[in-house]
Amino acid sequence: MVTFWVAVLALSVLLYVLLDGFDLGVGILFGLTRSETRRRVMLSAVSPIWDGNETWLVVTGVVLWGAFPIVYATLFSAFYLPLLVMLAGLILRGVAFEFRYKTERARWLWDWGFVGGSVAATFIQGMTVGALVEGLPTANGQYVGGDFGWFSPFAALCGVGLCLGYALLGAGWLVNKCEADVRDSAWRQIPYLAVGVLVFLAIVFIYALVENLPLMHRWIDRPYLFVFPAIGALAALVLAASVRRRRDGWPFYTTALIFVSAFGTLAISFWPYMIPFSITIDEAAAPHSSLAFMFWGEGLFVFPLMLLYTVISYSVFRGKVKPTVGHY
Amino acid sequence: MDLTALLLSRLQFAFTVSFHIIFPSFTIGLAAWLTVLEALRLVTGRPAYRVVFEFWLKIFGVAFGLGVVSGIVMAFEFGTNWSELAKMSGPIQGPLLSYETFTAFMLEATFFGVLVFGRARVPAWFYLFATGMVALGTTFSAFWIMVNNSWMQVPVGYVMDHGVAVPTDWTRIIFSPVVWVRFPHMLLAAYVTGAFCAAATGAWYLLRREYSAEAHIMLRMGLCLAAVLVPAQIFFGHLAGDYVHDYQPAKFAAIEGRWHDEQPASEVLIALPDLGSETNHYAISVPILGSLIGSMSFTSKEVGLTDFAPQDRPPVLIPFFGFRIMVGCGLAMLALAWIGSYVNLKGRSERSRFLLRLTFLSFPLPFIATLTGWFTAEVGRQPWTVYGVLRTADAMTPFLTARAATISLVVFCAVYLFIFAFGIFYIYRLLRAGPVGSLVLPPTAAIPNRPMSVVDEPIASSTHHVAAGE
Lengths: 328, 470
Description:
The complex is a heterodimer of chains A (328) and B (470). Chain A has 328 residues and is an all-alpha fold. Chain A has one domain (14-291): Formate dehydrogenase/DMSO reductase fold, CATH 1.20.1630. Helices cover 77% and strands 3% of the residues of chain A. Chain A has 13 helices and 4 strands. In chain A, the strands form 2 sheets. A two-stranded antiparallel sheet of chain A has the order 1-2. In chain A, strands 3-4 form a two-stranded antiparallel ribbon. In chain A, helix 1 (2-30) packs across helix 11. By secondary structure, chain B is mainly alpha-helical. Chain B has one domain. In chain B, 71% of the residues lie in helices and 6% in strands. Chain B contains 15 helices and 6 strands. Chain B has helices spanning 3-44, 47-80, 83-117, 124-153, 170-174, 179-207, 212-247, 249-256, 289-295, 317-345, 353-361, 364-381, 392-395, 402-433, 456-469; strands spanning 158-161, 164-167, 267-274, 279-286, 384-386, 390-391. In chain B, the strands form 3 sheets. In chain B, strands 1-2 form a two-stranded antiparallel sheet. In chain B, strands 3-4 form a two-stranded antiparallel ribbon. The longest helix of chain B is centred in the first third of the chain and has 42 residues, at 3-44. Chain B is globular, with a radius of gyration of 23 Å. The termini of chain B are far apart. Chains A and B meet through helix 3, helix 4, helix 5, strand 2 and helix 13 of A and helix 2, helix 3, strand 2 and helix 14 of B.
């Protein structure tokens, strides 16, 4: 039962990162162009699906609370201010999708909210992971870091890194979904972003060695973990090849694969901890009666339906967005 | 533990949840009403039903979107500000709220898409079915929230194990008698809200002598529905009072403004409770009625607030006045619904412009009643978060600082006011514009997960319409 809910949680987080990752990435890239036509096309490439993508964040939140209440309570209270910024960012960028078209004069305001909200939410997510990897200051399973205990240069670096990563994912999505202008500029951005992501990963690696983070020891103890980074490296090579040959469909999926491998690397090196190195999965799990109650309804029936529904809604909106027929 | 942080956290939760409840209490009723409209159209074939349906669907979209956005924040707040509660009750509240997300997401997301752009693509019966499913989704959502809140009011079906509530009997949790009084009470509140909003809008158009056919449907259905629902609501309200009387005597005494034990007890209709001297000033009370309401008896003894140690008493003023405002709104709505329906069924609505004006101005009543009802229930539960088990002061994140809580309260207030000012202005513009263009084309961009997009197309035309009129 615990394993089942760990799997559901992991899948929800992964889906959130991949799906909302690309539309947050498009939000970041949105700030790099001034052209109204390009902006419209970029928005229409994500507007049918972004809201569904964010649902996975809510799903993650409630599954975490239901199945692993201690982790929910510890993490959310420790990251009090960052989560506040993330929520405000997500709300602002969410309404910007609708409100920017309701006004001409104040459009810059909503556009600013869209870009700022996307960057802020992404940065916070990356920083959270960074802070977790580094280890939160805890004593007796209780967070003791104060208002800014989550902050560190390493965590901030991870925030920047995730911005680059989501932007790469977003560029991959644009190349896949758009034509002409937008696709071409995304193609031009991909090499820089990809190099940026790789440099970031290298810096993290070196930093980790220098700082001798506890996580590193686990990797050295378990060499088989390097399968995941290897898959990521392979995906990066394919991405490079696709940039040379301009294969529209490839960058998104190879970048997604890099994310999956990074996620797998993290997940397996966290194991069996949920909050490294203070709370394990078994310690965090809710009582069996709670997990079973969730399993026999939402776990067994509704969750598969949600996955199915996600697949269907993506297949409805498959294919390229037409630059001439915008959504509005 | 920081007392300022505690106060700020409570303010923040009260602010965000109060803002949130406005939208679901509107959309739950609206979704059910849309289903009725669509069914009526299928049976009678009258095109006006279709126009009214399309019109309210747009408003539903905006309100639904705002409800979703403000609801997401709630899912995080339990963890950020109330982490001790989240740990203690997580095994019970977590699964309940996850059911809320899962079931509501499934039904609403799937079938809202059909509602928005499926009209031409699916058979009529299926369209009706989809409307019903959206209504069912919003109802499920309310149901799980009420199960969750009722457990906090009257915790059942669990044992405490190392400071954690371990569920032992889900049937008792879900089928707790408290749930089945409070869930209908909330559901009826939502239906009454929908009914009054429809009636008020109808009255508004009649006053402006516009959209006569549609306005008559809104007015008649709204008033007649309210005429039936408000008495039912008052009945369930009485039952809700009974559970408070039996399970939360301190809250009951605060609502009644009863400081000392009385036998038989009188009922304070209105007064100014004085916390210092523990008495009421300017009280108007009816002898024996208190025992009758509390225990259905002429002689029963009813407990007063002074039976409880000061640290176990709820604040008095908010439950006392909140309850009276709620009941006052309820009685006003009852009078308006009955008189309005009578006049309407006699076919004299258009001539009694005073009554139309009253009906138009009545739309805030159900919202005020819902909010004050919740204030009564939630403030009256203090000083407990989980009644009798976990005090609010112990539920808060122990290391939360006043600084962090101030920042978050300010940010939430700013963002909410900004966003919701736009949203409500937007609904107002839609209402003001009226069901123009009647049979609107399904907007090309509207999609299941983006309810607010429904209004994109029509607003473009209605904007000009309004601008020309202003």
